[in-house]
Amino acid sequence: MSYHRFPNLGQALQGDLTSKLIKNVRSEDYADLECNCNSTSKVNGSCAFGGECRKSMVVYKAECVDCGMCYLGNTQQKLKMRTRQHLGEVCKLVNTGKASDSFAKHFAIHQKQRTSKLTIGEARAKVKVSILWQGNPISCNKSFGKLNCSLCMKERVLILKHSRENPNVIINSNSEFYGACRHKSRFHRYATTTSFPVLMTDESPERVEYNHNSPRNTDTNNRTYVLEEQFAAMEINPLAHISEQREPHENIQVDV
Fold first, then answer.
1. What are the extents of the domains in the chain?
2. Helices (H), the chain
3. 91, 108 contact by CB (below 8 A)
4. How far is 110 from 230, CA to CA, in rounded Å?
5. From the first residue on, what is the mean pLDDT of each consecutive set of 10 residues in the chain (256 residues)?
6. 96 near 166, Cβ under 8 Å?
7. At what angle do helices 79-96 and 102-109 cross, to 10 degrees?
8. Which of 133, 187, 139, 143 lies closest to 22, judged by CA?
């Protein structure tokens, strides 16, 4: 027996409003950056990720060059940084024998005949990494740590899709498929490309300016704003309504 509830009107309106507010807003901390790979991290003189090494919030596929089997994973950090962590686990397993995840176990099998220590550069040459999906950092960050984490759910869908097409190629373990979300939400800087209209300019008569050269402003604890010029430009007398109220009382004559 299954249960499904459609969103109500309030949730639909809130979702529509949120999508409009974040339409032109992007995250500066998770923004895509240009490739900065040096000569030691390149494979055959080019970027091992096809120039997409500094993208984040992605679901990636790591394919073994020797046997063609692949590993699917997700990361909220830069792809190059996450791949380096994988390669570090491979080197640790080959050099020290410490057990690790399914990624390291598979790629360590092809290094059994080694007599010297494995380096990250040598391990990188055996892996071909590509991006399968990239999500919106702002929307993904809201679902981190929950059962419906968008990044984890997208990874599960792609693992299930690849396992149905060719089940003998996937090297992911069951714990990685059914495991809980490991991502952590964080505050990040935002940037927008929307040009908001200016409601008040320097030429507007309603703008209140502070005169620093006025002799009345010598006392910093009793600063005043210069409003006379603004009221004169608008032809408004701020004390007119007060004088109109007091005028009848001042003309009253009392006979004793």
1. 31-36+43-187
2. 9-21, 79-96, 102-109, 120-124, 137-142, 150-165, 174-178, 228-234, 240-250
3. no
4. 81
5. 77 86 84 91 90 95 95 95 95 90 93 90 94 92 90 94 91 85 82 53 48 47 47 56 49 49
6. no
7. 60
8. 139
